[in-house]
């Protein structure tokens, strides 16, 4: 059985940059180091950070004086950063520049009088952060959700960085038919688009797909949805421990994709397990 690994599988540059920042801070800081929320949506990577002595807090109110706070790739809610500053805490901003863009656009567009619409998951940390920068009315619409009933004439649409392009396009198109002015700013991250395109072509070429990454990772879940729509034999796992040999009965080629927050060593673990199936008798499809 052949194992094909997607070119883009594993850490994106934004996650790699923040993880490197955390490691550097953990080596150099005198006091305790904490991340504001799990640094990335991958339980295995978070566990490794914990081994290095890096803790996680959910709010600045939980942080003791003298602690260094690292903001994760998803960014943070504006008032949390203001409260860290007011308390004089050392803050290392690990927000991915591709997340800073929708934050800045949320502020700018709402100041310009647009009703801001964000295509994304209202409960996701990145979206909560972006919403906090809006200085006027703001509506979050989940991908594939109903077109919101907004009375304002001017509407501006942005997206969670990991949004599927078609969901953004669909909402912009629907709003354009209802409002006098619709401004669309595509804030989907390039890495996400490339990774999704890669996953699509991979799923079309193989007999089964394994998507590796945190079950709490939005971009990994989207990858699994994209692959499953093309190849129904798609499995989303966090590590090789969840894999079952019978899932691959009859498969000649298995594709492997991974979310932007999945460490290389986790991808390698799954690839190694799949390669271990090579040479074993192939059952009936
Ligand atoms: S997926 Fe894109 S937005 Fe998210 S951390 Fe990576 S580079 Fe940044």
Give the SSE map:
Blueprint: E1 2-5, H1 13-28, E2 33-36, H2 43-51, E3 54-57, E4 68-71, H3 78-86, E5 90-93, H4 97-111, E6 115-119, H5 125-132, E7 138-141, E8 154-159, H6 165-176, E9 181-184, H7 190-205, E10 208-212, H8 218-230, E11 234-237, E12 253-258, H9 264-277
Parallel strand pairs: 1-12, 2-3, 2-4, 4-5, 6-7, 6-8, 8-9, 10-11, 10-12
Helix pairs in contact: 4-5, 7-8
The structure holds iron/sulfur cluster.
Iron/sulfur cluster is lined by residues 12-15, 73, 96, 98-99, 161, 189, 191-192, 219, 260.
How would you describe this protein?
The chain is α/β, with parallel strands linked by helices. The protein contains nine helices and twelve strands. It folds into three domains: 2-10 and 191-277, Cobalt-precorrin-4 Transmethylase, domain 1 (3-Layer(aba) Sandwich), CATH 3.40.1010; 13-96, Rossmann fold (3-Layer(aba) Sandwich); 98-188, Cobalt-precorrin-4 Transmethylase, domain 1 (3-Layer(aba) Sandwich), CATH 3.40.1010. It is 39% helix and 19% strand. The two termini are 13 Å apart. The site of iron/sulfur cluster has 14 residues, from helix 1, helix 4 and helix 7.
Q: Name the overall outline.
A: flat
Sheet with most strands: strand arrangement: 1-12-10-11
Main beta-sheet strand count, sense and barrel state? 4 strands, parallel
Question: Helix and strand succession?
Answer: EHEHEEHEHEHEEHEHEHEEH
What structural class do helix, strand and pairing data support?
alpha/beta
Give me the number of helical elements: 9
Q: What are the low-pLDDT stretches, counting only 5+ consecutive residues below 50?
A: 281-285
How far is the first residue's CA from the last residue's CA?
A: 13 Å
- The CATH homologous superfamily of the largest domain corresponds to 4-hydroxy-3-methylbut-2-enyl diphosphate reductase, catalytic domain
Class of the largest domain, according to the CATH hierarchy? Alpha Beta
Mean pLDDT value: 93
Q: Give the DSSP E fraction (strand runs of 2 or more residues).
A: 15-25%
> What Rg is obtained from the alpha carbons, in whole angstroms?
21 Å
Number of strands: 12
- Our count of domains comes out at 3
């Amino acid at each position: 059985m052949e194992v094909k690994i997607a070119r883009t599988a594993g850490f994106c540059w934004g996650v790699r940059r923040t993880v490197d920042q955390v490691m550097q801070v953990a080596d150099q800081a005198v006091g305790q180091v904490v991340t504001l929320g799990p640094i990335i949506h991958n339980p295995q990577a978070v566990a490794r950070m914990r081994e290095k002595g890096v803790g996680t807090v959910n709010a600045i109110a939980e942080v003791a004086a003298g602690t260094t706070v690292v903001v994760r790739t998803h960014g943070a809610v504006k008032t949390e950063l203001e409260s860290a500053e007011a308390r004089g805490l050392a803050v290392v901003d690990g927000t991915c520049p591709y997340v800073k863009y929708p934050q800045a656009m949320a502020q700018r567009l709402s100041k310009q009088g647009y009703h801001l619409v964000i295509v994304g998951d209202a409960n996701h940390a990145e979206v909560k952060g972006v919403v906090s920068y809006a200085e006027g009315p703001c509506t979050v619409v989940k991908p594939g959700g109903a077109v919101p009933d907004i009375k304002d004439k001017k509407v501006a649409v942005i997206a969670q960085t990991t949004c599927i392009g078609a969901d953004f396009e669909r909402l912009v198109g629907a709003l354009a038919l209802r409002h006098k002015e619709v401004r669309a700013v595509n804030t989907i991250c390039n890495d996400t688009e490339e990774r999704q395109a890669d996953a699509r072509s991979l799923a079309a070429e193989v007999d089964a797909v394994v998507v590796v990454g945190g079950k709490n990772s939005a971009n990994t879940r989207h990858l699994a949805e994209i692959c499953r729509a093309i190849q129904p034999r798609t499995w989303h796992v966090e590590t090789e421990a969840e894999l079952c040999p019978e899932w691959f009965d009859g498969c000649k080629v298995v594709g492997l994709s991974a979310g932007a927050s999945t460490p290389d060593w986790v991808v390698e673990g799954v690839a190694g397990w799949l390669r271990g199936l090579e040479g074993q008798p192939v059952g009936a499809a």
